[in-house]
Design brief:
It is globular and about 95 Å long. Strands 27, 28, 29, 30, 31, 32 and 35 form a 7-stranded mixed β-sheet that branches. A 5-stranded mixed β-sheet has the order 2-8-7-4-5. It is built from 11 helices and 40 strands. The chain has 709 residues and is mainly beta.
């Protein structure tokens, strides 16, 4: 068991959030604590944390990446950039290494987001994304009937009983093992030949947390299991005070913080603190807190749903997910499907300006380390053979693939919370404050009437910079990775779909792309993709969809799927006559603008009163739809790092103050100062943290500060 723990050391992640209910324009402020499982020291396995905001349909609305140092990380997630309707969302955090242990190893918590455009608070069956239920798991059929563990408060010993089904078992047929945080703390062979056995075990053998008792058979298979929580009363003691219990609006408030261990010895550590307005948010009673989650909940979730049947099998298991102690770029240079030995591989980054090079190994593998962090990184990788040539050189880069999680069961607590009149009143008050004060402080962006036009650099747009109904810029492309241009357009262009139409001069109907009933033309770097489409082929009129899939639609789709988002600098969509008239004049043939059949104008174009819609695509190469990738090059766009911002109080928001990096001195002391809001209120305080040496602490003080006029 120790060998397995050394091979597969688990990580425990906890996220301290500033609050649990937000407005759609808010920012989520968080601090992450990442521990190695056994002794709750800072994890050395992972230097990267991924966080996801997930809606009720299990769709990831936002995914971000943060750097971790010494097991600590803090940052923020802006909700203002996303279209988030009112409802419950899941905030999920994990490292790549944690994925080896299943979905239950991942930290997740549900939050509520209220849309500013909707004052109605609704449940929407949204709480399906909560935690899984906990229940005992029966392992395999065996001659052990039951395992009972009794832990009474005030008692120094645990009573553990094992009941056999019969008394004919060999004397050393089974083992009783107790693990805490995956460390074996107690292990003995048990003799069930004489019937029921009872063991009295000293609680001092185990640290605070869930202790897992298992009965193993001779093949080291788990046949029975029970868990019990043991509390050694060794949590950190956190206290704070202010000069005055009552303060006036906009007063400066200083918190004096004191942290000590269980023996009242002052202690240095890293802590996070949230001060919130009780009138706009409350203490999350569903929240477990750092101490409870790390020492109790995470074990209960993991082991109750992921029983271990065979320790030997796990020892031989190949790990699918690699640990990421730092951000690296790795891959393989090859030629004719063989590794290109001693290939010269170069890495370019434009912002910040950076150049690195390396030599590939005998198998063509290469790796770049110590790469500067960037929040908008686009890396160009180039490989050449030993002679400095790129002919017949191919590059494969190890791309990080986002995991796919199952939709989690319904969380009843969130449903009940959304039906709570007091909670609804708090959310409504937060919305009211936002609408009342946000405009004066410049936060109500939806009230601004003048907006700067988005511009695509290097575009062939006939209307000039910004002359489009919809514009997707390079920044938008960076978020899409290697998604095909066809998929990107279908997802991001409102109203874009497929349908049939008359495509002149053919007298049969075709099947292709449409926007709001208008036939779509694709222009790539100023070149009409239809230029290479032979539309005069005779067609069968039996099935519109089938014939279209055989011809023009397939032609357009093939061209669009040739490109990925990383090949594109920007996309501009024109469907109003203000923008598409110049495109009609340049790209429509006479047959397209004036198509007559049976004496009537049945085609498309200005003459018939039905305009085309145009999608102008600007690629990085600028070579139009005939671009061929340069041999030996690869454009790598990883999920960028998100770097933390400093909390700025609005003066009226639910989060009055957020301090993610409080470090106590050798006397266990720290000072935190902040300014009170503009309205009378009471403030609650939540502070959590660790000495990062195995000791944890959490404290909640409801209505600790009163603000008057």
């Amino acid at each position: 068991m120790d060998t397995l723990r050394n091979k597969m050391p688990m990580e425990r992640l906890y996220l301290h959030l500033d609050k649990f209910n937000y407005l759609a324009s808010d920012t989520i402020w968080f601090k992450a604590y990442l521990f190695e499982d056994a002794y709750l020291m800072p994890s050395t396995k992972s230097g990267i944390i991924y966080m996801e905001l997930v809606n009720t349909e299990n769709q990831v609305m936002k995914r971000m990446k943060f750097p971790v140092r010494y097991g600590l990380c803090w940052g923020n997630i802006s909700l203002g950039e996303s279209d988030l309707p009112s409802g419950t969302y899941l905030l999920r955090g994990y490292t790549n290494w944690m994925l080896n242990f299943g979905q239950d190893a991942v930290f997740s918590t549900s939050i509520y987001i209220a849309d500013l455009n909707s004052k109605t608070i609704v449940s929407r069956e949204s709480a399906r994304i909560g935690s899984k239920s906990i229940k005992p798991v029966t392992r395999i059929t065996d001659k052990v009937a039951a395992l009972e563990v009794v832990s009474l408060p005030g008692k120094l010993q645990l009573e553990v009983a094992v009941l056999p089904l019969d008394d004919t078992l060999p004397a050393t047929d089974h083992y009783l093992v107790a693990l805490s945080r995956d460390v074996v703390c107690y292990a003995v062979p048990i003799d069930l030949k004489g019937g029921k056995i009872v063991k009295f075990i000293d609680k001092q053998l185990f640290p605070t947390g869930m202790t897992r008792f298992v009965v193993l058979n001779r093949s080291l298979q788990v046949v029975k299991e029970r868990m019990v929580y043991i509390d050694q009363q060794d949590q950190l003691k956190i206290s704070f005070s202010t000069a005055h219990a009552v303060h006036k609006a906009m007063d400066s408030i200083t918190l004096q913080i004191q942290v000590a261990d269980k023996n009242n010895v002052p202690l240095q550590g890293s802590f996070s603190l949230a001060v919130t307005d009780d009138g706009q948010t409350g203490i999350d009673k569903r929240s477990h807190g750092l101490v409870t989650y790390i020492l109790r909940v995470s074990d209960s979730l993991l082991y109750s749903r992921n029983p271990v049947h065979d320790w030997k099998e796990l020892l031989n298991k190949e790990l699918k997910y690699k640990a990421e102690p730092e951000f690296i770029i790795s891959g393989r240079a090859n030629s004719a499907f063989k590794g290109l030995s001693e290939a010269k591989v170069s890495l370019f980054l434009q912002k910040p300006l950076m150049f690195m090079d390396t030599i590939a190994g005998p198998d063509g593998r290469f790796v770049f380390k110590n790469i500067p962090m960037s929040d908008t990184a686009v890396y160009k990788i180039q490989a050449r053979n030993k002679k400095g040539k790129n002919f017949f050189v191919n590059l494969e880069v190890d791309e990080w693939v986002a995991p796919v999680f199952e939709l989690m069961p319904k969380l009843e607590q969130m449903d009940s919370l959304l039906k709570d009149a007091n909670f609804v009143q708090k959310v409504q008050k937060a919305l009211s404050f936002k609408q009342k004060f946000g405009k004066a402080t410049g936060h109500m962006l939806d009230e601004v009437n003048i907006e700067a036009k988005k511009i695509v650099k290097g575009s062939y747009n006939l209307n000039g910079p910004g002359g489009a109904d919809q514009t997707l810029t390079e920044r938008d492309m960076l978020k899409e990775g290697k998604k095909s241009l066809y998929s990107l357009l279908m997802e991001r262009v409102p109203g874009l779909g497929t349908g049939s139409y008359l495509f002149p001069p053919s007298r049969q109907r075709k099947f292709g792309l449409k926007i709001k009933g208008q036939l779509v033309k694709i222009i790539i770097d100023g070149i009409d993709v239809d230029q290479s489409y032979e539309y005069w082929q005779s067609m069968s009129s039996d099935d519109d969809t089938l014939e279209g899939m055989q011809e023009r639609f397939l032609h357009l789709k093939t061209n669009l799927e040739h490109f990925t988002a990383e090949d594109v600098k920007g996309i501009e969509v024109m469907y109003n006559s203000l923008y598409n008239i110049k495109y009609n004049n340049k790209f429509l043939s006479q047959a397209e603008t004036r198509f007559s059949r049976g004496g009537g104008l049945t085609g498309v174009g200005g003459v018939s009163g039905i305009d085309y819609a145009y999608i102008e695509v600007t690629t990085r190469s600028g070579k139009g739809p005939f671009m061929k990738p340069t041999p030996g090059t690869y454009l790598y766009k990883p999920l960028p790092f998100s770097l933390p911002l400093k909390f700025q109080s609005s003066g009226y928001g639910a989060t009055v103050h957020w301090e993610p990096n409080i470090v106590t001195n050798e006397k266990g002391e720290a000072l935190v100062s902040f300014r009170a809001g503009t309205q009378p209120a009471t403030y609650s305080i939540v502070m959590e943290g660790s000495d990062m040496n195995g000791q944890l602490g959490s404290v909640t003080k409801p209505a600790f500060i009163t603000i008057t006029r």
